[in-house]
Amino acid sequence: MEKYYEELIALRRNFRQIAEVGWLEMQTTINIIKYLKMLGLDVKYGREIHSADRMGLPSEEVMSEHGKKVNTDNLNFDVSDILKGYTGCIVEINSSNPGKNFGFRFDIDALPLHETDDPEHIPNKLGFRSKDNSTDHACGHDGHIAMGLGLCHWIVDNIEKLSGNFRIIFQPAEEGVRGGKSMTAAGAADGLDYMIASHIGMNEKIGVVGVGSTGFLATSKFDLSYEGVTAHAGANPQDGRNALLAAASAALSLHTLPQYSTGSSRINVGVLNAGTGRNIVPGESYMQIETRGSDELILNDLSKRVEQVARGTAESFDVKYNLSKVGEAINFETIHPEFIDYMAEKLDEKGFTTHLRPNLGGSEDVSYMLKRVEELGGYSIHYMLGTTLKAPHHNVAFDYDESVLKLGLDTYISTIEILSDK
Ligand SMILES: [Zn+2]
User: Fold this and answer.
1) How far, in Å, CA of 45 to CA of 88, rounded?
2) How many domains, in total, are found in the chain?
């Protein structure tokens, strides 16, 4: 197994350097496909793995600018769709022995952050930090890609001994919850007996496997912009309509909303940009907002209230507003709790240290795939792979103990072994 473990680390360090954000994982997708083709696999990618209405796409300009930086030299496959933001890919590896249909999902995107320049940061010390100062694998999806590829490598090497079929899904745009819905709508999770996914870190202790993550929050992501009227702030402010004040007022109102006794709820205004100059009544503002709820009733109610605040504030400041939904994820709670108990017991027997039902306490759009498989009669499980974090997720100094990659691969392989015998 040693060769796989070493490869996981090398892969993780390579992908960290080319960190790309949601729908722009063009180089990342190309490099994943190159690796899979090297293993002799057929890869599905591009338009055929996505729905027609992907949410939260970057502008065409951003997309084509990014596409120019992508290295497409010496490729023997068509990348035109990938360069249009149809990122991610799916590979199917079928054994010749009858058995179960397994699905595994790995997310591949990074975050819009400037990775820390601290020389003590391990990626700086060892030279594998993000080469782009505006992107950073600060959630560990570099490790997820490595585990997904390592799993493919192991399956290919062991296919004679295995039974059933294996579908490995490399999903783009998890941050901002956009890719999961698109791929699920295009059938990524159809026809599976088991759906297996995981996340490294979170609050799990090093060496521990959290089995059957709970606390997936349903979420909606919104962009809100106000358009007012600019005017001279000294000479004739009465002619202006202030889009900055509308946004500031809306931000305060929005943060008073999440009060529910029936479950948990969250709201966050994460971005507010407005105005163009000191002596000008600001004519434009732009906000990024997210809502979360432990169930769809809370989420839908909260989202309706966001609409009311956006509209009401526009009315009171006499400005125009535009509210659009740019991302979405459902919650997930398994309908087969006994399956989670079974898996934890079997993993314990194999020598793993497990932690039953860890709390994710966030949103993850693999929820669409987990739910879809259960709806069609299969079983789904989400693992939390414990590791020591140098800084919290989404922090510029985020990094993790790489032993988690081995733990992850071992967990995936053991899961296949356990379920093949079931
Ligand atoms: Zn993540």
Assistant:
1) 6
2) 2
Q: How far is the CA of 410 from the centre of ligand 1 (A)?
A: 20
141 is in an annotated binding site: yes
CATH of the domain at 209: 3.40.630.10
Token digits of residue 421: 């015998």
Per-residue confidence (pLDDT) for residue 258, from 0 to 100: 84
Please report, for the domain that includes residue 238, its CATH number: 3.30.70.360
pLDDT of residue 107: 98
From the CA of 141, how far away is ligand 1's center (Å)? Answer: 6
The vertex-45 CA angle with 40 and 50, nearest 5°, equals: 150
pLDDT digits (tens, 9 = 90+) for 315-344: 999 999 999 999 999 999 999 999 999 999
Distance, CA 280 to ligand 1 centroid (Å)?
40
Residues of the chain with pLDDT under 70: none
Instruction: Say whether 382 counts as a known binding-site residue.
Output: no
- 96 shares a domain with 17: yes
Q: How many CA atoms lie within 13 A of 228 on its CB side?
A: 29
Q: What pLDDT is stored for residue 217 in this prediction?
A: 92
Domain that residue 410 falls in: 2-216+333-420
Domain identity same for 276 and 135: no
Q: Of 329, 347, 378, which residue sits at a domain end?
A: 329
pLDDT of amino acid 362 = 86
C-alpha of residue 200 to centroid of ligand 1, in Å: 8
Are residues 299 and 249 both part of a single domain? yes
Is position 394 annotated in a ligand binding site? Answer: yes
Ligand 1 centroid distance, CA of 414 (Å) = 23
Count of C-beta atoms within a 10 Å radius of residue 270: 9
Residue 199 is labelled as binding a ligand: yes
Q: Is 336 annotated as a binding residue?
A: no
Residue 162 CA, ligand 1 centroid: distance in Å? 30
Per residue in 60-83, pLDDT (tens digit) is: 999 999 999 999 999 999 999 999
- CA-nearest of 417, 356, 370, 335 to 103 is 370
Question: Using an 8 Å Cβ cutoff, are 58 and 85 in contact?
Answer: yes
The answer to whether the beta carbons of residues 111 and 138 sit under 8 Å apart is: yes
